[in-house]
Here is the input.
Amino acid sequence: MTQSNSCFLFDVDGTLTEPRQPMNHEFELFFGSWINNKNVYLVSGSDMPKIKEQVPTHILEKCDGIFSCMGNEYWRLEEYCFNCIYQNELDLPDEIEEWLSSKVKNSTFEYRKPPHFEYRSGALNFSIVGRGASQYLRSYYSEWDETNMERKTIAQQFNKKFREKYNIEALIGGQISFDIQPVGNDKGQVINHIDGGEIIFFGDKCYEGGNDYSLAQKADTFWQVNNWKETHKILISRYE
Ligand code: M1P
Here is the structure.
């Protein structure tokens, strides 16, 4: 049972869609109807153009709000168009960019598809293999990374070196990248902008070091899922 003022918050990549893929059509039909009369917010590490590529417009239009760039941008539908309610900024020290570039240079993963840096409002998305990677190369890197733990190791080194010095941290997000932002300017910040009762959050990186962790810790209930199929099953069994 949920309260009538319950708010459902969803991560996008890995939770409502495959990473960087459009929403599955069968799930779109279900979700487009499930969302009616519910309070729903999206909370993505990604930016608004990518969210629009992946989540159908009729679903975006039914959301109460969309937080992009790790909660560093907030969008709401007002008079038929999405307006940006706030937008944070990030000024990244040169030392950090140089350190990240050295990681690209020294990685033992053999392929590179730049760009490696994508600057967003209030956050940087960084990828060793590169944001230009094809679906095939994404999967190949992701499997390699699971065995070699490259992202986990780099995130630990980054946070040891820069967290206290610059108040900036790296979190693992998506399939091939990191989300880097000031400590506290992560997904957890969205709680301050949501009026409602019980907060129920779905994410695929709710564990420590993942980019859904801070929000999962602040939600009343969170569901760690591995893909949209698991999200679908939970919505049917617990929240229809
Ligand atoms: O939400 C975290 C990230 O999810 C995807 O990451 P990747 O490209 O590593 O699969 C992307 O949507 C990325 O923009 C986002 O930050």
About this structure: The radius of gyration is 17 Å. The chain has a mean pLDDT of 97. Residues 13, 19-20, 44-46, 50, 125, 173-177, 179, 211 surround 1-O-phosphono-alpha-D-mannopyranose (CB under 6 Å). Helices lie at 25-34, 48-54, 57-60, 94-106, 135-148, 150-166, 213-218, 228-238.
